[in-house]
Amino acid sequence: MSVPSNLKYVDTHEWVDVQGNEGVIGLTAHAVELLGDVVYLELPKIGDTIAEGASIGVVESVKAASDIYTPVSGKIVAVNDVVLGDPALLNQDAYVNWLYRVEFTKAEELEALMSAEDYQAAIS
Fold this sequence. Notes:
- By secondary structure, the chain is of the alpha+beta class.
- It has a single domain, classed as CATH 2.40.50.100.
- 19% of the residues lie in helices and 35% in strands.
- The strands form two sheets. The chain has a six-stranded antiparallel beta sheet. A three-stranded antiparallel beta sheet has the order 4-6-7.
């Protein structure tokens, strides 16, 4: 399974696409593969303040339910309503179908995120 090299990762299987002082966040393809067919998503609301490592939502599949953890602290500035309406899109491409966008409040947290190579090694 290919892990995009332009993203940062955490061991709870979320990715971050750093875009200036904001990040687009989603679930890795590895996580989605382990879950199976995704049928339900619960995500934070725009304006919510989130803390690194906190459970901020839920993803459910036909096999299991799992918490979604935030890799960084910040304020939710967007939620992907398309994926909320059709969670199965995650099974098609977990790296295109992002979950939410956050404005960073502690940019130094980005330094602790894994590179694609480190994440690939962790899941191999």
